[in-house]
UniProtKB/TrEMBL annotation:
Record protein name field: Universal stress protein
Any Pfam family the entry gives: Usp
Record-linked SUPFAM superfamilies: Adenine nucleotide alpha hydrolases-like
InterPro entries in alphabetical order: Rossmann-like_a/b/a_fold, Universal_stress_UspA, UspA
UniProt record similarity statement: Belongs to the universal stress protein A family.
CDD domains tied to this protein: USP-like (cd00293)
Species, as recorded: Cellulomonas xiejunii
Length: 134
């Protein structure tokens, strides 16, 4: 089985990555790190650079975690993560979350909520210790 993590190069993504690595090690499963963008912005700071990817690979190797990193451009990030989790038969999908105001949710929707409702496997939502956005 495989643990899938939705990763972004920020505090939320790091928290999700660390937790997913622990889950993969504890259950002796592979880890699939997914970093996706919609490609609609000229610069998407949630889409990892090659330096970010190298740093994550080194961290996971130092922990002894077997991992693959997949970067994707998708119309809908939530749909992409759920589809990838289904594709690999994930045992767990780990995501980083942040606080969002009710107005923010109304205007922009919640990717985390759509993942929680759409995933066929268990979803673990992780908050960064000092998550920005509050």
């Amino acid at each position: 089985m495989t643990v899938v993590v939705g990763w972004t190069p920020d505090a939320r993504g790091h928290a999700a990555l660390v937790r997913s690595a622990r889950e993969a090690l504890a259950h002796r499963e592979d880890l699939l790190v997914v970093n996706a963008t919609t490609g609609t912005a000229a610069v998407d700071d949630r889409f990892a650079s090659s330096a970010d990817v190298s740093e994550v690979q080194a961290m996971l190797e130092s922990l002894g975690v077997e991992a693959q990193i997949r970067q994707a451009v998708a119309r809908d990030i939530a749909e992409e993560l759920v589809a990838i989790a289904d594709e690999v038969g994930a045992s767990l999908l780990v995501i980083g979350i942040r606080h969002r105001s009710p107005v923010g949710k109304l205007l922009l929707g919640s990717t985390a909520q759509r993942i929680l409702l759409g995933a066929q496997c268990p979803v673990l939502a992780v908050k960064a210790p000092d998550a920005p956005g509050r």
